[in-house]
Amino acid sequence: MIASLGMYDMPHARDAYDRFWDGIRDALGYGPEKLDRTHDSWGIWQSPDLLLAQTCGLPFRARLYGQVTLVGTPDYGLRDCPSGYYYSYIIRRRGDDRDLRSLARSGILAYNDGLSQSGWAAPVAAAGALNLTVPATLETGAHVASIHAVLERRADFAGIDAITYLMWQHANPETARGIETFIRTDPTPGLPLITAKGRDPAPIAHAVRNAIAQMSASDRDILHLKGLARIDADTYRALPIPAMP
C-alpha cells in the first residue's frame, strides 16, 4: 500500500505530516508505516496500491476522474471561503506597483505546472476576466520555486496556492517581506484526498477526520488543518480545463 501527502509537505512541516499520518493509520488500523516521499506524484496517484494521497483539483478533473476514488477534501479554514475551498494569491515583488492588467501584458508569469489549478488555471482565469492572455511564462516546477523566481526577478508575478503561501510565509517571515499579495482569486474546490479505484473511501475519510480531531495545537498551526469536507466529483468537473501553457 502507498500513502502520500506531498502537496504541502514542506521541510518544516514534515514531522507534523508524519504524526498526522500516524494518526490516520492508527484510526484506520492498517496502512504503510511511513509516507511515500520517493515516487513521482503521477505514479502515486495512478497506482492500484494507493491507500491515500492528495492531488490537485485540475489533475483530478482532467486526468484522474474515473481512475481513482474521491475520499474528501481537507478544510483549511481559509477566511471568506466555503469549507474545503481555497484560492490563489497572485503575488508580485514588494515595490512593484503594476496591476494585473499591466503584468499580464508585459510581465512574466511564473507557474509551477500546467496542470495546477492554483498556479496556472487560477491566474489565467483572473487574466481572462480582463480579456487578457498571458504571453510570457516561466515554468518552475513548484510553488515555492515560483515565489523565488519573482523574488529573483526572473518572473514578475505568480499564482500561489493560498495554503502553500501561508505555510511558506510562516516558515520564512523575513524573505516573505519581499513579496506582496495583491489579488485573491475566486475560490474553487480544494485539493482532494483520493484512494485507488474500487477501494471503499468511507473508513479512510473517518480515519482522516479522527486524526484531524486528535491533532495537537502546534501541528494544527503548522498544517492549518481544520476538518474534512465533502465536495462531490461533479463540482470539480464543472470547472473549465484551461489550455496548457
CATH superfamily of the largest domain: Periplasmic binding protein-like II
Radius of gyration: 18 Å
Number of strands: 12
The succession of helices and strands, N to C, reads: EHHEHEEEHEHEHEHHEEEHHEH
The CATH architecture of the largest domain can be given as 3-Layer(aba) Sandwich
Distance from first to last alpha carbon = 34 Å
Poorly predicted sequence stretches spanning 5 or more consecutive residues: none
**Number of folding domains?**
2
Explain how this protein is built:
With 245 residues, this protein is an alpha/beta fold. The protein folds into two domains: 2-76 and 190-237, D-Maltodextrin-Binding Protein, domain 2; 88-186, 3-Layer(aba) Sandwich (D-Maltodextrin-Binding Protein, domain 2), CATH 3.40.190.10. 38% of the residues lie in helices and 20% in strands. It has helices at 14-28, 41-45, 57-64, 100-106, 117-128, 143-151, 162-171, 173-176, 202-213, 217-223, 233-237; strands at residues 2-4, 50-54, 68-75, 85-86, 88-93, 109-111, 137-139, 157-161, 179-184, 188-189, 193-196, 227-229. The strands form three sheets. A five-stranded mixed sheet has the order 1-2-11-3-12, covered by helices on one side. The chain has a five-stranded mixed sheet with strand order 7-6-8-5-9, with helices on both faces. Strands 4-10 form a two-stranded antiparallel sheet. Helix 5 links the parallel strand 6 and strand 7. Helix 1 packs across helix 9 and helix 1 crosses helix 10 (217-223). The chain is globular, with a radius of gyration of 18 Å. The mean pLDDT is 96.
